[in-house]
Amino acid sequence: MNFAPATAPSMATRTSGPSPRSLHPRPALASSFQGRACPYAFKSGARPVRVHAVAPACVAAPVELKTGKPKREEVITGAPDNNVTDYIYEKMGADLHRQADHPIGIIKQAIYDFFEARNPGMFRTFDDRYPVVTTRANFDEVLVPADHVSRNPNDTYYVDANTVLRCHTSAHQAETLRAGHSAFLVTGDVYRRDSIDATHYPVFHQMEGVRVFNEEDWKAAGVSGAELAEKDLKAALEGLAKHLFGDVECRWIDAYFPFTNPSFELEIFFKGKWLEVLGCGVMEQKILDENFEPGHKAWAFGLGLERLAMVLFDVPDIRLFWSNDDRFLKQFKAGDLSARFKPYSKYPSCYKDMAFWVSPEFSENNLCELVRNIGGDLVEEVALIDNFTNKKTGRTSNCFRITYRSMERSLTDEEINAIQDNVRKAVADELKVELR
Ligand code: DAH
């Protein structure tokens, strides 16, 4: 899902060379959480989408606090809208963010520590919220417009028409406010259908932060509620950036998110480049009014933990976070932000090109999903390398390059050829394209 304003530069940390994605007739990337574009940085209607209807408004049900790994039949349901695959189900419950010595867990804890030091005892932390949520929580309650691209089943995993695997931790904003919390951090795994490369993986981790102010707070500060929220937000997040990355220069970029107004992105100057770190803003008043008491103001932010961990620890490929290889895991220790990943070996890659006439069923996300299901984590990148339309017939041909590489071992020609054969068959059958 790439949904950023067309004007801003790409902030994705591309470790795999220049992006052939510029061939795509879509806007350049700007915002990128954990190395991934942020769909919410785009206003609605930015590209034509088939969307699910907004769930009907209803009285808030009591929060059902399920935890743990969902059962397979809870997410692979056979419902007409169900697009969760076994590959995705297998990733659920890994809880990388709850492992103290894992880079994702280390970053999470460092952020918790920062907020605890800044405002002792103020922030409640939650890191076991159930990843299966209603479309109401994921979209409606945070004011994602009815025609917003992120509602498209091409971009989001649907369990059924009214239930999704959360595609952002913002899905927990409203319910946590309703439970009466006025300052909180929610960390969890989030799920998105997307392209495949070194910084994109269909499961990753986010943290949501919210702080609510009351009238006494802004009177004491001698400013308006909105001014206090914006000022405290910027001070907190600049402090956080310095806590994680050292004495870096920070800059604020105006942004758009459905849930905040005004909205901003924070960038830091790190290793010679401006890097986007997170999205944030003053919470849309409607969210606060509908889920908290009247007469308050709040700020909110959302950040991607993989993105921060890749930048901070020099991790070159997002798949490494899912590795069970001790040569990766043993390089990190709880509480240590100074570790820098030392590659143990870079195994050779192998690529296969595949050209076909596209069909209405075809989308790059569908292709990537299919390739992942067959090739698993051996797939390093799927990139469009050629694209043309035959003037006479009006048919469009795409050529994709699939790069295979293991993080752990050398691959044999036979196994890659077998995978690629299966990919070609499945592409022709399921995506109804005509191979060339
Ligand atoms: N939910 C956004 C995303 O996944 C991130 C985000 C941006 C969260 C701004 C926020 C916010 O709370 O204020 O891309």
Question: What is the gist of this entry?
Answer:
This protein has 436 residues and is α+β, with helices and mostly antiparallel strands. Helices cover 26% and strands 24% of the residues.
Architecture blueprint of SSEs:
Elements (H helix, E strand, L loop, with lengths): L31 E2 L2 E2 L34 H4 L10 H6 L11 H16 L5 E3 L5 E3 H4 L19 E3 L2 E3 L7 H6 L4 E9 L11 E11 L1 H7 L3 H21 L3 E9 L2 E11 L2 E11 L1 H7 L5 E8 H9 L12 H4 L20 E8 L6 H12 L3 E11 L6 E9 L8 H18 L3 E2 L1
Helix pairs in contact: 3-7, 3-9, 11-12
Bound molecules: 3,4-dihydroxyphenylalanine.
3,4-dihydroxyphenylalanine (DAH) binds next to strand 11 and strand 12.
Catalytic activity: tRNA(Phe) + L-phenylalanine + ATP = L-phenylalanyl-tRNA(Phe) + AMP + diphosphate + H(+)
Subcellular location: Mitochondrion matrix
EC number: 6.1.1.20
Helical stretch tally: 12
CATH architecture of the largest domain: 2-Layer Sandwich
The largest pleated sheet is described as: 7 strands, mixed
Bound molecules: 3,4-dihydroxyphenylalanine
Portion in strands: 15-25%
**What is the strand arrangement across the widest sheet?**
3-7-8-12-11-10-9
Number of DSSP-assigned strands: 16
Percent range of helical residues: 25-40%
- At CATH level 3, the topology of the largest domain is BirA Bifunctional Protein, domain 2
Distance between the termini: 27 Å
What number of structural domains do the residues give? 2
Unreliably modeled segments: 1-37, 46-53, 55-59
**Name of the level-1 CATH class of the largest domain:** Alpha Beta
What is the average of the pLDDT values? Answer: 89
Structural class: alpha+beta
